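With this grant's support, the team has encoded backbone shapes as discrete tokens. A representative record is reproduced below.
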Amino acid sequence: MTSMTVNGQAIRYQLDPATPLLWALRDASNLTGTKHGCGTGRCGACTVIVDGRTVTSCTVAIGTLEGAEVTTIEGLSANRGHPVQQAWAAEQVSQCGFCEPGFIMAIAALLRASPRPTPEQVAALPNLCACGAQPRIARAIARAAAAMGAVAGAEPVGNVSPPLSAGSSTKVEKPTP
């Protein structure tokens, strides 16, 4: 049995300790916002925040997370009110929506660690988008950074830090005017 806090609630998973966090979240907790993509941690669709750091939940066994604090897309904010979620909608980033939750979690972590990220930091995000929304993603990141700067006194949800590993890169480029 593994105990952790998920989106502010204490959870005890009675699952095999080798169960990937992704499946514990989706199947046992019915938190289906975290998506299964590649199953190897390369695409970033399953990105969540564990103890303030982004992780690909398909690669982390729940047995290694005893006492951890996990934040999923469902726990990032109430009513999709996080600046990244607001910017994502304002820039109309969504196409298929599959990469969306993982990207939003990774961007929230990036902006928490680096409120004014460099193009290199943005390009190093490990998440992939197959729909070609990269220019809109870049605009959403800039919009969210500006919004988060405007509320500088506010503490972001999840106390996030930069990703644990860079993995694959999305190569988000700044749009041309």
In short: The chain has two domains: 2-75, 77-150. Residues 2-75 form a domain with the Ubiquitin-like (UB roll) fold (CATH 3.10.20.30). The first helix runs from residue 21 to 28. Residues 93 and 142 are 13 Å apart (CA to CA).
